[in-house]
Design a protein that fits this description.
Layout (H helix, E strand, L loop, with lengths): L3 E4 L4 E4 L8 E5 L13 H18 L4 E5 L6 H10 L3 H18 L15 H13 L3 E4 L2 E4 L15 H7 L14 E5 L16 E2 L1 H12 L4 E7 L3 H14 L8 E7 L2 E2 L15 H4 L5 H9 L7 E2 L2 H26 L10 H15 L4 H20 L3 H17 L7 H5 L5 H19 L3 H13 L2 E6 L2 E6 L4
Parallel strand pairs: 3-4, 3-9, 9-10, 11-12
Antiparallel strand pairs: 1-2, 5-6, 6-7, 7-8, 13-14
Helix pairs in contact: 2-3, 4-6, 6-7, 9-10, 10-12, 10-13, 11-12, 11-13, 12-13, 15-16
The protein binds one RNA strand of 74 nucleotides through helix 1, helix 5, helix 7, strand 11 and strand 12.
RNA sequence: GGCCCGAUGGCGGAGUGGUGACGCAGCGGACUGCAAAUCCGUGCACCCGAGUUCGAUUCUCGGUCGGGCCUCCA
């Protein structure tokens, strides 16, 4: 099954062929760690985590090398550190930890490498030196600038002809620039701000050179896939490309596929209704299960803009509830059956293949979701038909299919009890036992009273043939 | 001003030149002590105009509306 990916550079979906199938390389621009990250910052995290998973599936887990950088040198970091009167490392470590914890809660695997600017300074300085040596950069007034005139293909990725960019420029051009489009590779630090030594004087690197140097160091150029948000196409990725190519004698390739995820639209006041303008992933994760937020982030195709609001997350939660209910019912049914392994379930297998095919078609998650529901329906039908072997194999396939995308990783019972602590669980179990006793004597008023009591605890009971089950109605 | 995207039912959102994905929500029925869940059934769409075509939601052109980028925001 071939994997097809849409490439921003060629503006077409093409079959993906890694340079070396035993070492597939992926780089994604990561966060600047100066605060808790906005939910929009996690769209690329989840999207490219999905790509990482798909690549691992196709080429083998060990064959895929995924680097996502961390920008830990930045004006906003400096400002925050000054406000708190602490070294920047205190700030960056604090928010990097929070970022990694949130990413994990969203089901994102840890990238193979997570390079930091502060730990890549030698490679950055070396690359700037290489660019000067190649006549693609020049020093002026304490700065080092990239000479965009030295790269004939400048503008090719974003589709912006040079002259138009100059015409449209709405920023004052620094006097030391030879050309308005030239950008900073190295600049002097301001007073009391962190600085590093370089042949051009103490200072710090420009934003774009960081990524190019980190790619070179972590993965080695050229790489197979470079990803990031659509807003980074210009100037960031355009500049990265120019640096990467020019630092290698102007002949080097940089990335064979460029992938960009669409924007997450927050829609103004819409969030205020029940979420109270919650926009930080960190806060959202306190209100909803990570998988529900992950589902919401993947509910549209990654290249499309995604409208983010509370309804979307609630619908996502409901969709997952449905899948977990199937798993729960299947597990309940199988508990009373003898184990049956190794049975082929062709119908369910076809759905599993459809999930894979959708993912291989440029990460078409909506279609993959549809196939997942088809598969769930097969399992449901098998339960109704009391066909233990079909249930067992179908359930395994459903879990596996969800697992391809980082879903259905929780035990169904635990999923429905998310948010309940042990104390609540004990109380609920006791109340349900009382209610069962009342129901046994057909004492309906008492049974309904207890149900009301449970409802007050945000718990919903469901009477089934093999006893009652319960779930947390709503989190938050 | 320049460049680039998008417009599908109550909501989210795929896809296709001709049988109206999928999920959420709604409605009717079954089941249930009543519910919930589940099952059966059901309604609801392809921004506007022109063109190409036997036939367009799908292709082309124009328009309207919405969004992104234009030197450090994913």
């Amino acid at each position: 099954m071939t994997l097809s990916l849409y490439d921003t550079m060629s503006r077409a979906k093409r079959p993906f062929t890694p340079k070396d199938p035993s070492r597939v390389t992926l780089y994604v621009c990561g966060p600047t760690v100066y605060n808790f990250a906005h939910i929009g910052n996690f769209r690329p995290v989840v999207v490219f985590d999905l790509l990482f998973r798909v690549l691992r599936e196709v080429y083998g887990a060990d064959a895929v090398k995924y680097a996502a950088n961390v920008t830990d040198v930045d004006d906003k970091i400096n400002r925050k550190a000054a406000e708190e009167g602490v070294p920047i490392s205190v700030i960056t470590n604090r928010y990097l930890d929070a970022y990694n914890a949130d990413a994990a809660a969203l089901g994102a695997l840890r990238p193979t490498f997570q390079p930091r600017v502060t730990e890549t300074m030698d490679a950055i300085v070396k690359m700037i030196g290489d660019l000067i040596h190649q006549n693609s950069a020049y020093a002026a007034e304490g700065h080092v600038l990239f000479d965009t005139q030295s790269f004939a293909d400048y503008g090719k990725l974003s589709g912006r002809p040079m002259d138009e960019m100059i015409a449209g420029a709405r920023v004052d051009v620094a006097p030391y620039k030879r050309h308005p489009a030239d950008f900073v590779l190295w600049k002097p630090s301001k007073e009391n701000e962190p600085e590093w030594d370089s042949p051009w004087g103490p200072g710090r690197p420009g934003w774009h050179i960081e990524c190019t140097a980190m790619i070179e160091e972590a993965l080695g150029l050229p790489i197979d896939i470079h990803g990031g948000g659509i807003d980074l196409v210009f100037p960031h990725h355009e500049n990265e490309l120019a640096q990467g190519v020019c630092s290698g004698h102007g002949e080097r390739e940089y990335a064979q596929v460029w992938m960009h995820n669409g924007f997450l639209n927050m829609g103004d006041e819409k969030m205020s209704k029940s979420l109270g303008n919650v926009a930080l992933a960190h806060d959202l994760l306190g209100l909803y299960p990570g998988e529900a937020i992950r589902w919401a982030l993947l509910s549209g195709h990654y290249r499309q803009p995604l409208e983010w609001n509370d309804t979307l997350i609630e619908q996502s939660k409901s969709a997952l509830d449905r899948l977990y209910r199937v798993l729960d019912d299947a597990g309940r049914f199988l508990a009373g059956e003898s184990a049956a392994g190794g049975f082929d379930n062709p119908a369910a297998q076809a759905d599993f293949a459809a999930v894979e095919a959708a993912l291989h078609d440029d990460l078409n998650t909506p279609t993959a979701f549809a196939a997942l529901f088809q598969l769930a329906d097969k399992v449901r039908a098998a339960v109704m038909a009391q066909d233990a072997r079909s249930v067992a194999s179908g359930r395994d396939l459903l879990v596996a299919a969800g697992g391809l995308m980082g879903f259905l990783t929780t035990d169904p019972q635990a999923w429905f009890h998310t948010g309940a602590d042990d104390d609540l669980k004990t109380r609920v179990e006791a109340l349900i036992a009382d209610r069962q006793a009342a129901r046994a004597t057909k004492n309906w008023p008492e049974a309904d009273r207890i149900r009301g009591e449970l409802a007050a605890l945000n718990v919903e009971v469901m009477d089934g043939p093999s006893g009652a089950t319960w779930r947390i109605k709503e989190q938050a």
